[in-house]
Each structure stands twice: as C-alpha cells, then as structure tokens.
Amino acid sequence: MKVFNHPLLKILTWSTFIWVGFTFSAQAQTVKIGSLVAGQVIEVHVKEGQHVKKGQLLMKIDDTRYQAKLRSMEASLQMAKLKLADQKINLDQALDLYDRTVTATRERDAAQLAYDLANQTFEKAKADLAYYQAWARYFVINAPVSGRIKKIDAPKGTTVYKENTPLIQIER
C-alpha cells in the first residue's frame, strides 16, 4: 500500500484499488454591521434566518434631526451666497470710485477684504453642506454582502447612541 498526501487529498493505493478522500473545512464568516449615526431604528425589513442579497434594504434609522440640520445648512449656504453678492456690489463700487480718484486706497482695500471674507464664508458653507450631505446614506442600512441574517442586534424602536453600535449580523 502506498500513501500520497496532499493538502486537500489523501490517496491510498493498493495493488488494484485506489481510495481517494477529500478533506476540507468550510467555515461561515459573520459580517457585523454597525451604525455610523445616532438615532432610533424605525424600520426593520428582515427577520433572523432570512436570506438576503448584497444591497438589499435591511433597516432604517430615523433621520428627522439630520433633515432639519440639513435644511439649516442649506439656508446658511444661501445666506452666504447673498452676502457674497452684496460684497461684490460694494467691491465694484469701491473700485470704480478709486479708479476715478474719488476715494483713497483704504476704502478700496477694505471693500476687497470684505469681499474675500464673504467669498471664504460662502466656500466654507458649501464644503460644510457637502460634508453633511455625505452622511445621508448612513440612515439607510443595506446588506454589504449576500448571506443569511444571523442576528438582529437592534430591533425596531432601539435607540442607537454612538458610532459602531451593532445593528445586525449576516452569516455568509
């Protein structure tokens, strides 16, 4: 009898008989999904044991406070835009008066500074809004992988207080 070993196969040979045995292990991997935002779980669309596909809606977290803050930031951006337009008018007037030698350099420079500050305030408001808008997707929890719902850690009504609070586990 001869024995041939391979990581996945074990082959035993006798004069005319061959025995082949497969050895392998399959271990399920659990994907734990956590929250990146705070709020209350308002919808759960799956049950434990249910099979889900990648991208499938699992649950939603209340985004009422987020939406209110988003509207406030949009209003701040609009205000900054209007202030910038006003400072542009002041700057154009100051430059015109300076070119006609009616005003001194100081008034022109002050108008330029006020315009530059208004422009930076506007750019910051745009960046703040874009940053905040990027968080919108974290209130809707979709399956990152296909698999079976192993455990729901945060059923409907659960309040999520901090980042990475466990919500759901998927076994793949």
Automatic annotation (TrEMBL):
One of its GO terms (cellular component) is efflux pump complex. InterPro entries: MdtA-like_BSH, RND_pump_MFP. It comes from the Bacteria. One of its GO terms (molecular function) is efflux transmembrane transporter activity. Residues 30-164 form the Multidrug resistance protein MdtA-like barrel-sandwich hybrid domain. Gene3D superfamilies: 2.40.50.100, Helix hairpin bin. This is Multidrug resistance protein MdtA-like barrel-sandwich hybrid domain-containing protein. It comes from Hydrogenovibrio marinus.
